[in-house]
Amino acid sequence: MSKITREELLLVFRRLVARFGLDRVTMKELAREAGVSVGTIYRHFENKEALIASIEETWLDHVRARNAQILQREAAPEAKLYDLLVVHAARLSEIVRTDQAAFEMLMGAVRLRYIDHDVVDTRRRIFDDMIDTAAAVMVEGTTAGQLDVADAENTARHFVEAFAEYFSPAAIVSRPHAEVVEGVEGMFEFLMRGIRAR
Fold first, then answer.
1. Do 93 and 188 belong to one domain?
2. What is the C-alpha to C-alpha distance for residues 33 and 16, in angstroms, rounded to an integer?
3. Domain count of the chain?
């Protein structure tokens, strides 16, 4: 493979990191696996940090697209909030158990080790987008008389941040997947009791 796209390089990089972890994947190994020269990689990415940042942006774009789909879906507000939080947390629990790349990149330590310039925390950006989505769903639900939320932005922030433990890779892998799902479903039901219209 003499010609390779940026996206193809990212896929090879993710596959290598998923198998071996960030520390063990070098630009030379990436070039060998991709069937290109190291120079070809540098034409697409300045360094390893740029590869990591590109993958994080891809994840953020995926979360934003998923959240936009949840908002546009014809469903009850409670079902939308369930998809936004419970389904997301359950899927994340599966991913971090099977994908070393996802686990390492979602850990805050990655930024400290690999990125020496100011980079906005991807996890925080994902939370902020989820908060915005939850707030929009809460406004929709309150308008429809299904939810009772006076301050959607503030309530959404508290609501989403109550799930922080279930979005932390280290906390997730310390418990069995079934226990994580049970916990996130319990937290969801507990929080919904406070915002359902009576």
1. yes
2. 8
3. 2
Please tell me whether residues 92 and 129 are part of one structural domain. yes
- Spatial contact of 16 and 29, defined as CB atoms under 8 Å apart: yes
Task: Report pLDDT digits (tens) over 149-161.
Answer: 999 999 999 999 9
CATH number at residue 71: 1.10.357
The whole model's pTM is what?
Answer: 0.80
Smallest Cα–Cα separation from 81: which of 192, 158, 193, 194? 192
What residues make up the domain containing 170? 50-195
Ordered DSSP codes for 24-61: T--HHHHHHHHTS-HHHHHHH-SSHHHHHHHHHHHHHH
Q: Of 26, 56, 24, whose CA–CA distance to 42 is shortest?
A: 26
Q: Which two tokens mark 13? A: 């990089």
Per-residue pLDDT of 54-86, as tens digits, reads 877 887 888 899 999 999 999 999 999 999 999
DSSP letters along 68-96, please? Answer: HHHHHS-S-HHHHHHIIIIIHHHHHHHHH
